[in-house]
Amino acid sequence: MADKALIEKAKKIFENFLTKQGSRKTPERFSVIDELYSLPEDEHMDVEGLFLSMRNKGYTISRATIYNTLDLLVESGLAVKHQFKDKVALYEQALTYKHHDHHVCNQCRKIREFSDPKINEIKDEIGKSFRSTIKSHSLVLYGDCEIPNCENLVEI
What we know:
Pfam families: FUR. By secondary structure, this protein is α+β, with helices and mostly antiparallel strands.
């Protein structure tokens, strides 16, 4: 179930962002926040998935509005955009975001999030060796599914 306080916090941040940008505060833009922040924290959604989900819930919204709103949400720090291999861009909410890395299955396309302190240790060592303060990183591991009868496998 979506955390209503979190959604309201995201809307307030977005409203302030739009005011500073001199951009319009339309109900459609705020409905994208409702939908994105109603997803489980570890869920990644593409524009088409958001569009279909919102249409099924009775929203009248265009794909272009969703694309534009997601760009604004990324710019405002309310969404994180990921590009995995041959997949379209996927988005996740950012207010509850804790840095994590991803494993993507080559067969079933399932995306799993993980964190490992050893990765941060490696990042720090690399930063020292290059005399650089590393501010962020992105690690995506791609593997082949070995799960018998995997429910996520898509037959081609």
